[in-house]
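User: I've been trying to design a sequence by hand for this structure and keep getting stuck. Would you show me what you'd pick, starting by listing the structure so we're on the same page?

Assistant: Good idea, let's start from the same input. This is the structure you sent:
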């Protein structure tokens, strides 16, 4: 798959709420995920560890009010997806979370993801 095809497929699955399916299909086994230094897990390595981090985040959500995934912006082997999550977080109330997700693709798989928020 090309970077554009991977980007389109990721957004398609995420818009359907199939985030874990997207990770299973599109992530490389050795993916590296980077988040800001203030996050609880600034660096995660490996597909299974990224799955577990995603499950931990999902468990913090009390109620989802809406999620928006913008169309991907592709440049070479990289693409970005602006995302907005409107959710009530356990013990934190309703919040609108805005982030920019940047991905790197190699051999048709996502090898890295970086979140900016």
């Amino acid at each position: 798959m090309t970077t554009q095809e991977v980007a389109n497929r990721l957004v398609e699955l995420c818009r359907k709420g199939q985030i874990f399916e997207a990770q299973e299909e599109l992530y490389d086994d050795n993916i590296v995920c980077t988040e800001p230094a203030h996050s609880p897990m600034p660096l995660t390595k490996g597909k299974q560890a990224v799955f577990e981090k995603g499950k931990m985040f999902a468990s913090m959500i009390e109620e989802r009010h809406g999620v928006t995934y913008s169309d991907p912006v592709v440049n070479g082997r990289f693409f970005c997806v602006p995302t907005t999550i409107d959710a009530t977080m356990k013990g934190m109330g309703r919040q609108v979370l805005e982030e920019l997700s940047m991905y790197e693709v190699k051999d048709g798989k996502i090898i890295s993801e970086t979140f900016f928020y």
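That's my pick for every position. To get oriented when you compare it with your attempt: The beta strands are 27-34, 43-45, 61-69, 73-75, 78-89, 93-106, 109-116. The chain has one domain: 3-116.
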